[in-house]
Design brief:
With 127 residues, this protein is mainly α. Helix content is 76%, strand content 0%. The chain crosses the membrane at residues 7-28, 48-66, 73-91, 97-115.
């Protein structure tokens, strides 16, 4: 049962990266993502940087699904999500879907990643 839950949670986590990376950024399904990048990194190369970020987020989804070094993957995800959201919280809150509350959503996402990799699914060892 735990393995099935772990599998579905990983699919959900990967889906977040795919939707935000490929749909929102690469395919420009949500143009405010490029506006956020422009506000933070400058408008000259905002589209190119948004594409790069989007493809990297797509690769993060692949990493999640492949489960190679999954705990390292979780640490990297948590670091990136918190870093990105704190910067957006400070620099572009008016462009965020939930405004400054986006940080709360990001924290819950990070808690889900942490719970999946370090809490719920971990195996117990007997000393």
């Amino acid at each position: 049962m735990k393995e099935r839950i772990h599998k579905y949670v990983n699919i959900a986590i990967a889906a977040v990266w795919i939707i935000n990376g490929l749909y929102c950024k690469v395919y420009n399904g949500v143009p405010r993502h490029q506006q956020i990048v422009a506000r933070i990194l400058g408008s000259d190369y905002a589209r190119l940087l948004t594409l790069a970020i989007g493809w990297l987020e797509g690769l993060m989804a692949v990493w999640v699904l492949l489960a190679i070094k999954s705990r390292w993957c979780a640490v990297v995800q948590i670091f990136l999500v918190l870093t990105m959201n704190i910067i957006e919280f400070l620099v572009a809150p008016d462009l965020l879907l939930f405004g400054r509350m986006n940080l709360i959503v990001a924290i819950f996402f990070c808690l889900m990643i942490y719970w999946d990799q370090f809490g719920f699914y971990r195996t117990k060892t007997v000393a």
